[in-house]
Amino acid sequence: MKDHPLILITNDDSVKAPGIRALINYIRPFGKVVVVAPDRPQSGTAHGVTIAHPLRLDLISKEDGYEEYSCNGTPADCVKLAFKIVMKRRPDFLFSGINHGSNASINIIYSGTMAAVLEGALAGVPSVGFSLNNYSQHASFAPSEKFVKTIASEVIANGLPVGVCLNVNIPDVPEPEIRGIRVCRQAQGTWKEDFDEREDPHGREYYWMKGVYAQIGNGEDTDQWAMENNWVAVVPVQFDFTAHNEIENLRKRF
Amino acid sequence: MKDHPLILITNDDSVKAPGIRALINYIRPFGKVVVVAPDRPQSGTAHGVTIAHPLRLDLISKEDGYEEYSCNGTPADCVKLAFKIVMKRRPDFLFSGINHGSNASINIIYSGTMAAVLEGALAGVPSVGFSLNNYSQHASFAPSEKFVKTIASEVIANGLPVGVCLNVNIPDVPEPEIRGIRVCRQAQGTWKEDFDEREDPHGREYYWMKGVYAQIGNGEDTDQWAMENNWVAVVPVQFDFTAHNEIENLRKRF
Hints:
- Two copies of one chain form a homodimer.
- Chain A is α/β, with parallel strands linked by helices.
- Chain A has one domain (6-185, 219-241): 3-Layer(aba) Sandwich (Stationary-phase Survival Protein Sure Homolog, Chain: A), CATH 3.40.1210.
- The first copy, chain A, is built from six helices and eleven strands.
- In chain A, helix 1 crosses helix 4 (145-158) and helix 2 packs across helix 3.
- The interface between A and B is large, with 76 and 75 residues.
């Protein structure tokens, strides 16, 4: 294990969220920790970056082996600013979360927490995102502690393949009911959106998004199945969108 | 070819961008066209969705076989609202763009134009994103016309495999210099960000993102190579982030 590594922590629920406070507590014993996280909730910002507005960094606290900043940008902005401005180098490891709500299955595509993790992997930094299957601001993160520490210490000891990061989803049950860690593939699933149609006080219509998650298939090798069956689901994630199996077929068409 | 299909058009540069005006002109002859696009530029919003604010739709024009709306949300919001509120059903096809600027290689992860396309594919709609390798608002889209029409008519005739969409990147050269259409994989690449560090009139620091694209490898089977060598690059895209090759190795670790 690298001695006293430099570790970046971020999330998308804002620097004030209980999930990131729990993660900071669990990770601080492993090395020098720098936190750069959004100053307000950024759920659903996905891999957005801010190019049309200036970004701000605010120092929240600084002590021996620990620095904490908030930023007015997205999680991906936080990672880029942390590398270039705050740390002036890439950290040794990046941990993101603990997200309030699942990032299993299709949720990864909308997730700012996992965008930060992918941003780390794109820069060659071993990176892990942690999410708890409970959207509430009052969720209990205590059952996560043992598993977050196990996974973080393993990654700090042995690294990750270049370009590969981890998406970790933790079931929302008491620790004794968690069956262990299970390496999985991303489940196929989709959100069945609906919109509340409302009228504002001036008579104009507006729409508010809501939706329910719909599983497509339910293989026992998927993250969604694992999490629903009280396993901590770990998916190795990479950022190649190519549907390699389709290339030859398409070459016959174009 | 399906007779008079229902086609959704969107983008991320806003409903006013020359790129979407060109795409609308090229696609209208193929069927009934509905446009739902952002009311202002949304480049870099990636797969962001709006859950903390209400969404608005404004009818811009409506005539026989054509409707156009602007929306205050992201490209992914536009697609979801189009399906549920405007069309009350999934369209037969979705076309997005023509983006002002390349979405080859890593750019796809930041792209609102391609997020809209993935949103279509997630819902089972054959979907294609078109991008021109020129960021200027004054770019010439005329050389794109022949290739956009060729690809759109082929997809309208023969569909796409479920869950697979196309990322089409068009070189910024006169039409006679374009060598044809080439099916590719997504190039590996990254953005080397930097930040302008500035001071506002009140003495507070701020940061403005800038960056240059850096290629990792340069295979002739990649979209980046194809586009730079005057081919129209077509990548079949899917939304499984799993690094399948790493699952077995990780199972030995956890």
